[in-house]
Sequence to fold (138 residues):
Amino acid sequence: MADENGLGKGLFLGLLAGTVIGSVIALLYAPKSGKELRGELRSKGEELLDESEEYLERAKVKASELINDGKKKSERLISDAKAKVDDLLEEAEKVLSEAKDKTSKYVGESKGKIDKESEKLKSAVKAGIDTYKSEKEA
Fold:
């Protein structure tokens, strides 16, 4: 964007300088009296001044528009980014919650299985001890 502004400014200044130089040379070589020449130089100078003021005013308006557009676009980008971050956080919380639920379920099921197998093992050991005692007594 800065390159475009620099190119436009350089082009305008070159055009302005060429116009001034061309006008002055044309007026100097024109067969007119000094009074007429000074009058034309004055009017040309006023025209150039008016044109440059108009150009500067248009440039100010354009710069203001560009700044406002940039602000709007950046606000929109920030808003979109916040919405996406909120969506991602919400999705991450869902995944985490589901993982916790599944983990709790698996831990509970595994604990139940371990308790069941532990009871079977205790019963088997007790039966083995009882059998050993009865065999020893007999």
